[in-house]
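Hi Y.,

Following your request, here is the sequence exactly as I used it, all 96 residues.
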Amino acid sequence: MKQNTTTNLTSQTIGLDLGDKRSVAVVLAPSGEVLEELKLQTTRASLDSAFGARPACRIAIEVGTHSAWIAEQLAGYGHEVLVANPRKVHLIGRSR
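Below is the corresponding structure, written out as tokens. Let me know if you'd prefer a different format.
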């Protein structure tokens, strides 16, 4: 497993919406512009194909059934993985 270091991250951020069978990833530029949208199966092989060779970047996912094993797999490729609890995101946004 690769060590994750934020100093080697690309400037892209990926939002990954996880589903039981299919997931959708949206790649964003620093400006917020959508660069790419990926539709993939929620399997280890599909994640490997989509993210294994991609330069290290920040990937945000919601906490859920698959988030633990997916976060571990993505971090193994060198990505910084942020797991957000959607019930607490509004609290974070409202805090100072």
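Strands lie at 13-17, 22-28, 34-41, 58-62, 80-84.

Thanks again,
Q.
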